[in-house]
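ok so I'm stuck.
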Amino acid sequence: MLEHHDHAVLNQFYSYPFSSDEVFQQGLSGILAHTSMNEVLGTERSDLILKTQVFYFNRATGHNLNLEDLQAHYTADLDRSLPRGNQYTRASSETQHGEAPNLTFAELKSMIEQGKTDNIPNNKIIPDTLNDAAPTRSNAPVRKKPWEVASQS
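replied:
not stuck anymore, here's the structure
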């Protein structure tokens, strides 16, 4: 389990720019290219990406973070309903500037499982009914058949 001073390492991990790190993206694409999509689906794929992120983060920063530390920190934060140092915390400052927060797959999955879909940014409720309005008439001219076009030339 992580000590109190090690939460800075977790915060550094959560804020690491994996999506803009070209070396990481190249390595990840190589790993994903070598794993068959039949072998790795859904949560297994996200676990593979998380393991790759932890490995790369440790190599790039010299830290010794492991998956158990992340899971313990994430579980403890879920119990408090507002995780420290991850994207929920950053999201509160981003929404003040009018931008929607970016949620990780794990955060999105957790919110759906907890029934907090109203907290998901840009989540629209689509009614389960058909459109009651009358259909509109087409204003486009009827397309000519190939033999009609050829005879006009």
